[in-house]
Amino acid sequence: MAIIERPTDTPAVVSPDAAPAVATPATSYGVFRRPVETTGWKSWLFTIDHKKLGIMYGVVAMAFFVIGGIEALLIRLQLAGPDGTVLSADAYNQMFTMHATTMVFLFVMPMAAAFANYMVPLQIGARDVAFPRINAFGFWTFLFGGLFLNTSWILGGAADGGWFMYAPNSSVAFSPTNGVDFWALGLQITGIASLTGAINLIVTVINMRAPGMSLMKVPIFTWMIMVVQFLLLFAIPVITVALFLLMFQRSFDATFFSVEAGADPLLWQHLFWIFGHPEVYIIVLPAFGIVSEVLPVFSKKPLFGYPLVVFSGAAIGFVGWGVWAHHMFASGLGPISVAVFSVATMAIAIPTGVKIINWVMTMWGGKLKFTVPMLYAVGVIVQFTIGGLSGVTHSVAPSDTQQTDTYYIVAHFHYVIFGGAVLGLFSGLYYWWPKMFGKMLNERMGRWNFWLTIIGMNLTFGPMHVLGLQGQPRRMYVWTENRAGDGFFNIGFWNLIASIGAFVLALGVLLFFVNIYVSHRKGTQKAPLDPWDARSLEWITTSPPKEHNFDRTPTVGHLDEFFHRKYEDRGEGDHHDYHQVATAEEIIAEEEAKGDSHIHLPSPSYWPILLSLALPIMAYGVIYNIWLIVGGAALALLSMYGWGMEPHTAPDDDYDPPAAGTELEVAAHG
Amino acid sequence: MADTAVAPATGHDAHDDHGAHHSSTGLSNNKLAMWMFLGSECLLFGGLISTYMLYRGRHSENLGPDQVWDIPFTSASSFVLLMSSLTMVLAVSSAHRKDDRNTKVWLMVTALLGALFVAGQVYEFTTFYREGLGFTTSLFSSSFYTLTGFHGVHVTVGIIMLTSLVGMIGKNRVPGDKAETVELFGLYWHFVDVVWILIFTLVYLIPA
Ligand code: HEM
Ligand SMILES: [Cu+2]
Predict the structure, then answer these.
(1) Is B55 on the interface with A (CB under 8 A)?
(2) DSSP designation for A628
(3) Hey, which end of chain A has fewer CB within 10 Å, N or C?
(4) Could you name the CATH architecture of B38-205?
């Protein structure tokens, strides 16, 4: 609901410009009256509240995490012993393709979007994002795109060309089911979600910061999210082009990848990796942001070299555009290109290393407190560094030509993605859970969760270094005993270990879900307002935050604003001596007392979900029937008109049923 | 809290954080978003143009660029599109003067010029097709139709938006700031024009 009347003692101040910017006659609101529900399923379906959308992103991402995880377990079951029979060669191809696609596009990216949606407005002291309806559209588009992609399983088989879907292998001749069509169209749809999300969050961070929050006072998580959104803004259109070419190739017999017609197979590779390498930073930078929030809190020290962390994040963002061809060292690019991209790739390890040093220095000499979020953050430092080091080994082109397309690469990217991104996201889950749900996750169970995950991931991905250097190719659906080698290097042994590790890892993740259940059982305590002694703005409000986030828009004087409100520096010169002067309860109570008495929030809307719904309909149309395209396009057009004509903040008489407080509102606005 | 730099900008009357009237940079949210979107579009066309440049010489025995282009015709239609940018400027300036009538007129003229351009493109495509240049004929033809087709779709979407805007202004149903809305559409329209200048130069004028 959009109008919030806070009962306060202070009289409502009604200033002249309190009226809506444009006075619209009562007939002009749009087609439907605005939904008004604040509880029940409708309040979720039509919501434009960034917090609700954040939670929905998180729930759906977790569901896809489970699906992607099951696919991974099937892969590891197949490879656990020689001559595996769990999956056919065909099913195996679909499994690894969909595993990677699901994990990257439907778990890690949306999970980062969940935190970005929920936390960015709170961290910058805003009441919502810049375009709340576009935000809702982004979520539904992601959800429908993900579902669309996965319906391929029951409609003739999923995509089977690997997550980078090299041409011409992706052509109809080599992949005759509709799987690749579903893949291309599904990613196109989720791409739209990412692109609109990127524009929305960039504008939000640039334009909606609380008074006093200069760019160098923006919390580090929000900074990293902003870098990611810029990467998305420029990377998504490149894969969009690639996916269109692929779709035209498959559905309309275009010739872009027909080698017999003279096509250049490297075209796809270039387009894919120009998107693909920035994508790996899209995957990992949000987690870096989380780690950079968590470490200072549990080290009781400010982030070491905040400007440097910001700068190295931005530097990664820039340099990340110049290294894509390191994925193509073995494709015959020519010695000069290979040399240039090899050196550029080595260079990118520098800003990455800078971040690691900053984290270690943050912990150095701090009063460390190893809570579960902190354990995960430290886990990131250790595991990601291992992955970064193997990355540097394949930045050396001659060595990479030995490693490429082997399990060594699989080991590398799992250490960086699981060890960097996923552990970081879990750190964020444990850290922000009390903020988002008002309950602490159980710490004891969290420790089990953490250690099983760490042991599991090292058992799974560690042996893959050995397997790869022994020459086991990636994407090989079966291995045989008589070529497995002997002794320490017997690939049978290491494959078995990796498979056992995968189940340990799965058990670890399962414990997370058990933990949610255990922590939310009846009778568990409500979380304190400031359980971790946190530092940034999102904690200057209740947990979970009210619909309008802040009773009063906070005014910011420091990076780590919340910390500086709680503690006073009584030291002299460079020597700091912090004394607590206020508790979180007091600070929040004060904000509440001085809060605005009359707050207008953007109103829920029917249009975002309707517009999103049009996209998969059109996509099915491309595959099955042109009339579906027409129908979908009609729905899209109608929704856009409906959307275009309704104001983002509804006048008070535009609710169905009329909103409470209407009369007061009308009176106040004259 | 001693060094609080900036006082609350809006204080108690901060009824709506989403309108154009208050932002950290002074730029309106809508305008910033449009610039971001156009930035992204640059890479979309960048990718398509690169694909075309890579493939424009690959047509084996089939028709090549030099055999099908009708430069005088395409120059004329390019000129029409350029003129539409001019009329768009006039629409924006009328909107800033709050002159609804002229805003509508110039928007309509812009849309008509755009439509003329699209009609020219349809004519061009049909001619090429009759001469034997189908979408699937060669790498050159696939990438040519894709690139110019994408641009044509952008113009068409623009036309739909312009005519809708005219209707909405007529019925006084534009939510938010009218002049800014017209200006945003103008940004998009100019962008699409600039892209065409690029395409015209690279695709038609520079010999393969
Ligand atoms: C120190 C920084 C890094 C360096 C120097 C580096 C280097 C490389 C190189 C050269 C390859 C290509 C290997 C081959 O295919 O032969 C590669 C593959 C890969 N890297 Fe990294 N990398 C780094 C960090 C990351 C990060 C942070 C991520 C993701 C979060 C990542 C994800 C991947 C993935 C997914 C692949 C494999 C793609 C595929 O073939 O499917 N890397 N890396
Ligand atoms: Cu890379």
Answers:
(1) yes
(2) H
(3) C
(4) Up-down Bundle (1.20)
